Amino acid sequence: MNLEFADLLAHFVQLLPTVYVVDDVMTELLENSVDALGVSGGSISLVSGGELRCITSIADSAADIERCQEGLQSGPGRTAYEKGERIAVTDIRQRHDLWPEFAENARRLNIAATASVPMSINGETIGVVSLYAHEPRPWSADDIVFTYLVANMATGYCVNASKRHQLQQIRSQLQESLKVRIILEQAKGITADARRTGIDEAYALIQAHAQLCNASVSAVARAIVDVGLRV
């Protein structure tokens, strides 16, 4: 692998711990990969409901062939997803035996060579990176290795974004739990003062009112604090 490829991958590794928009960074990754390999176009597709859905593509012909593959759910990308292995074809127009409709559309769009590599994590394929060339191309070992690295980078971005989203959800839930706890403590204090009773007894009164009204304890507590409900 040459220095250009190494520099490209180093750049995208540095982006991983930063805040990014998945679609934007995927498009940039794909665009740079297409340029580095000198191919005509490419696409990144993710699995949704058992089907491949293209999330970004470079070149109109790549976008068109991906729409075709989405509609058919048949083609080298789909096969790469189903088998969990790379599918590299020197001239797709000669492979009517494997994907007749896809091959015919490739001929119409002037696409010859295709290479599709699965995006996998822990044995599960979550998407596919595909590259296209207008001329027949015997994909070299370096081409395939580089495409696998791109697929791994794309997988890393997806997984990292998912984990960051999960972490944000956990933080939001913890913050909401803290707010509810504060309101409940305030409601217990208000009820204890109004009833001239202890905190535990006040909480029991709030619970009893919640059960009577078929409401949550937090909803009753909020009503006590915000609108002056007394129990």
TrEMBL record:
<dbReference type="InterPro" id="IPR036388">
    <property type="entry name" value="WH-like_DNA-bd_sf"/>
</dbReference>
<keyword id="KW-0805">Transcription regulation</keyword>
<dbReference type="InterPro" id="IPR011006">
    <property type="entry name" value="CheY-like_superfamily"/>
</dbReference>
<keyword id="KW-0418">Kinase</keyword>
<dbReference type="InterPro" id="IPR029016">
    <property type="entry name" value="GAF-like_dom_sf"/>
</dbReference>
<dbReference type="InterPro" id="IPR003018">
    <property type="entry name" value="GAF"/>
</dbReference>
<dbReference type="GO" id="GO:0003723">
    <property type="term" value="F:RNA binding"/>
</dbReference>
<dbReference type="GO" id="GO:0016301">
    <property type="term" value="F:kinase activity"/>
</dbReference>
<keyword id="KW-0808">Transferase</keyword>
<dbReference type="Pfam" id="PF03861">
    <property type="entry name" value="ANTAR"/>
</dbReference>
<dbReference type="Pfam" id="PF13185">
    <property type="entry name" value="GAF_2"/>
</dbReference>
<protein>
    <submittedName>
        <fullName>GAF domain-containing protein</fullName>
    </submittedName>
</protein>
<dbReference type="InterPro" id="IPR005561">
    <property type="entry name" value="ANTAR"/>
</dbReference>
<keyword id="KW-0804">Transcription</keyword>
